[in-house]
């Protein structure tokens, strides 16, 4: 007889693994990336490939040099690379994409202890880093159909009417992955069905952003229209951010109410930036600022255990 | 009718189909039988026989060693060969009585004497349960007579029979539901006679529709006994989850089911109560499911307590392949053993042999997916508890209600990074409880 393994229960495990979850996220990102390639051309795919390859290579090299176990097999670096890519314009120079990817993996993720330990979303932190460092390059949105069109939120900001149908299909200017509402919703639906993320945070982010934008617009005394609100809800990368970044495991609260409070915080900051600052799109900054609040939000929203009474009073 | 349930929980892979349709077979062992003195929670029993004594079926081998303790009854006739420490399933040694089986199964006086429970006083019924050495047969092994002796003034309005059998693979209770439902209903009636005005409820998971049907028809015409279908979900059979599903009342670790007006007994225990009180047969046998992918013919076998597990496995056709892991109990909460030269206990519901050890997998870093706290039936924060437990921060551990953990293992099961959450938490919990006991002794 073979020697028997002895361990503490449970003796069975779910099939789900870190890799399978990351693979699900990658699959969910594919429709958005696909529309990005369709709208912006092969250059978009090139940017995505550069980001992904650099992210994976950076993680591998860091772990090799630091003599750590190699963890690129969990695919989380691929997810970081793809999320960074869908937040970049297809016209981004390759070296900017490389710098962003290295920053995301090396500075934000690995230096803080690798997967699950980063305090900010690596891809978004890298994007904000690039926006601040190369502001001219990072605001040169690409030209579509030979016409240089501003992004929907810029139009909305100047009071022009936005073509909502374009927003839904994705044929307008913007970053690679943020343009198509349909593609993002397909990805979101996949993640919800596979129970990779819960719809709590995404829905509160979208709902509270629209609500706060409406509120602030009224305060400012600007004209408020359904078209304007729809442009805010569907444009400016709000959907892609709400689905793929405000639901990030490592940097958002794990508790039920924590996720809702986090969503509202993101919505508030996004609306503040969109309405009161010179920048037209504020989601990336809103999310990484809210990431910093995550530990506090989490601490305030611990669930009350089963059967534990609020007051210490016997029945 | 909607199946009742609780919040959280997991759906571990079934495995019940292996032995679900195997009718209960009886096996009478040939070799020696070993009766461990610690088959229950509480004080070990104290042997009351000496080497060389001839013992008969139904005779007491050991008296309860305290209030929370249970008697040990001989399941065979033969000669006492040894009263000495013997290895038990956790690798520890415990006092035991070894009986050389003479194969005659000669009953002792009074064995099998039928009684009418309606003419018995409550004290007599509880004494009969105590003398029969009945303990919870689901796995925990809490002495049943202690459960039934509620503090004066406590009103019990629910007697709940735990027929959830939520652990994968185990089918012994399911077979009993199909084959002996009337006995369980009789046991329920006996318990209800102790608590006037109480309702009897059979809580059965809805993955056992035939079991539900059998019990429903067995309790037809009984006004105060009903069957509540429960949703198939682990740990539906946890005492706190079951009470919450059936009555909506929630208890914590500092409370007993009686504080919520409930008495919870396992299905097999109920049959043991009926046997002991109405038929004069103390607890000497139990049904064990022998199953797993390494077993030739997965079966449900009724064996005398004390039977060597090796014999039991042989009776189930032996192993088709050398197992890598053998578990006593279910895969979620059972205990892994390193050898099979062990006796069947009152709480041995299942012998589960795996060809591959699914749990033999390296843990990775936490990705903070939050699945552990979404599945925790106690609504705890397993990730925070593990962090506190791993660094020995027992103060934080207690502050985060770590002592409320029921050790169900859902967090470890569901973790995609394969982290050993419940293992760390259980260790810290045991440490904290031990420290508290030490402090109490010092005072």
Account of the protein in words:
The complex is a heterodimer of chains A (315) and B (443). Helices cover 61% and strands 0% of the residues of chain A. Chain A has helices at residues 18-40, 42-65, 76-86, 94-109, 122-133, 135-138, 152-157, 164-169, 181-193, 200-220, 226-234, 238-245, 256-276, 283-300. With 443 residues, chain B is α/β, with parallel strands linked by helices. Chain B has 3 domains: 16-20 and 112-279, Rossmann fold, CATH 3.40.50; 26-111 and 284-354, Ubiquitin-like (UB roll), CATH 3.10.20; 371-442, no CATH class. Helix content of chain B is 28%, strand content 19%. Chain B has helices spanning 122-131, 144-148, 172-179, 181-194, 209-218, 239-247, 267-279, 309-315, 371-375, 382-390, 394-399, 410-414, 421-442; strands spanning 25-26, 33-36, 46-47, 54-55, 60-63, 72-73, 78-87, 93-101, 158-163, 199-205, 225-230, 262-266, 285-291, 299-304, 325-328, 335-337, 350-354. In chain B, a hairpin with a 6-residue loop joins strand 15 and strand 16. Classes of the chains: A mainly alpha (315), B alpha/beta (443). Chains A and B meet through helix 1 of A and strand 15, strand 16, helix 12 and helix 13 of B.
What would the keywords be for this entry?
A: 315 residues; mainly alpha; Ammonium transporter fold; 0% strand; B: alpha/beta; Rossmann fold; four-stranded antiparallel sheet; 13 helices; globular
Category by helix and strand content of chain B = alpha/beta
Element string of chain A (H = helix, E = strand): HHHHHHHHHHHHHH
CATH architecture of chain A: Orthogonal Bundle
Helix content of chain A: 55-70%
Helix- and strand-based class of chain A? mainly alpha
Task: Give the overall average pLDDT of chain A.
Answer: 89
Form type of chain B = globular
> Mind telling me the CATH class of the largest domain in chain B?
Alpha Beta
Total DSSP E strands of chain A: 0
Number of helices of chain A: 14
Low-pLDDT parts of chain A are: none
Order of helices and strands of chain B: EEEEEEEEHHEHHEHEHEHEEHEEEHHHHH
Question: Mind telling me the CATH superfamily name of the largest domain in chain B?
Answer: NADH-ubiquinone oxidoreductase 51kDa subunit
């Amino acid at each position: 007889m073979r020697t028997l393994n002895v361990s503490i229960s449970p003796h069975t495990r779910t099939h789900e693994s870190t890799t399978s979850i990351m693979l699900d996220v990658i699959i969910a990102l594919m429709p958005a990336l696909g529309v990005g390639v369709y709208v912006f051309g092969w250059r978009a795919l090139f940017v995505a490939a550069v980001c992904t390859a650099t992210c994976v290579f950076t993680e591998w090299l860091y772990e090799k040099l630091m003599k750590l176990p190699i963890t690129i097999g969990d695919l989380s670096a691929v997810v970081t690379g793809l999320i960074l890519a869908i937040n970049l314009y297809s016209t981004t120079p390759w070296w900017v994409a490389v710098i962003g990817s290295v920053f995301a993996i090396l500075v934000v993720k690995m230096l803080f202890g690798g997967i699950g330990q980063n305090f900010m979303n690596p891809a978004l932190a890298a994007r904000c880093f690039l926006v601040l460092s190369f502001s001219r390059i990072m605001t040169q949105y690409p030209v579509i159909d030979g016409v240089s069109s501003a992004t929907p939120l810029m139009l909305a900001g100047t009071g022009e009417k936005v073509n909502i149908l374009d927003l839904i299909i994705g044929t307008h200017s913007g970053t690679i992955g943020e343009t198509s509402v349909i593609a993002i919703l397909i990805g979101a639906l996949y993640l919800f069905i596979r129970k990779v993320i819960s719809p709590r945070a995404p829905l509160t982010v979208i709902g509270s952003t629209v609500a706060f934008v409406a509120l602030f617009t009224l305060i400012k005394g600007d004209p408020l229209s359904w078209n304007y609100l729809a442009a805010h809800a569907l444009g400016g990368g709000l959907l892609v951010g709400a689905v793929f970044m405000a639901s990030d495991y490592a940097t958002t609260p794990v508790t039920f109410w924590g996720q809702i409070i986090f969503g509202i915080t993101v919505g508030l900051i996004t609306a503040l930036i969109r309405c009161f600052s010179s920048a037209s799109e504020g989601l990336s900054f809103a999310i990484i600022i809210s990431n910093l609040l995550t530990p506090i939000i989490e601490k305030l929203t611990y669930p009350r255990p089963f059967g534990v009474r609020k007051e210490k009073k016997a029945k | 009718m909607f199946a009742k349930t609780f919040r959280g929980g997991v759906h571990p892979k079934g495995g019940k189909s292996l032995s679900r349709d195997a009718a209960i077979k009886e096996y009478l062992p040939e070799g020696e039988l070993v009766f461990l003195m610690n088959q229950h929670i509480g004080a070990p029993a104290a042997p009351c026989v000496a080497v060389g004594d001839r013992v008969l079926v139904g005779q007491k081998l050991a008296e309860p060693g305290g209030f929370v303790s249970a008697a040990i009854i001989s399941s065979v006739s033969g000669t006492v060969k040894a009263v000495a420490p013997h290895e038990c399933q956790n690798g520890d040694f415990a006092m035991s009585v070894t009986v050389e089986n003479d194969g005659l199964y000669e009953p002792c006086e009074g064995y099998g004497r039928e009684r009418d429970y309606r003419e018995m006083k409550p004290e007599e019924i509880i004494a009969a349960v105590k003398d029969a050495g009945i303990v919870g047969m689901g796995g925990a092994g809490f002495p049943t007579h202690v459960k039934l002796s509620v503090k004066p003034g406590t009103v019990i309005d629910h007697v709940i029979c735990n027929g959830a059998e939520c652990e994968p693979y185990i089918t012994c209770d399911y077979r009993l539901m199909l084959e002996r439902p009337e006995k369980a209903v009789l046991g329920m009636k006996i318990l209800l006679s102790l608590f006037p005005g109480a309702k009897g409820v059979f809580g059965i998971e809805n993955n056992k529709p035939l079991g539900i049907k059998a019990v429903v028809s067995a309790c037809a015409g009984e006004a105060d006994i009903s069957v509540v279908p429960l949703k198939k979900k682990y740990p539906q059979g946890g005492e706190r989850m079951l009470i919450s599903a059936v009555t909506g009342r929630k208890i914590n670790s500092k409370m007993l089911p009686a504080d919520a007006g409930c008495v919870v007994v396992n299905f097999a225990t109920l049959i043991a109560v009926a046997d002991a009180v109405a038929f004069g047969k103390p607890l000497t046998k139990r049904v064990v499911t022998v199953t797993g992918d390494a077993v030739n013919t997965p079966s449900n076998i009724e064996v005398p307590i004390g039977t060597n597990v090796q014999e039991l496995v042989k009776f189930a056709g032996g192993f088709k392949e050398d197992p890598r892991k053998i578990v006593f109990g279910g895969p979620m909460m059972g205990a892994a053993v390193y050898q099979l030269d062990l006796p069947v206990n009152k709480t041995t519901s299942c012998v589960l042999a795996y060809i591959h050890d699914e749990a033999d997998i390296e843990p990775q870093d936490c990705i903070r997916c939050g699945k552990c706290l979404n599945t925790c039936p106690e609504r705890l924060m397993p990730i925070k508890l593990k962090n506190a437990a791993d660094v020995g921060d027992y103060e934080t551990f207690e502050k985060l209600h770590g002592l409320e953990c029921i050790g169900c293992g859902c967090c470890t099961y569901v973790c995609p990074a394969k982290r050993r959450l419940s293992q760390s938490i259980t260790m810290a919990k045991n440490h904290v409880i031990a420290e508290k006991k030490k402090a109490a002794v010092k005072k």
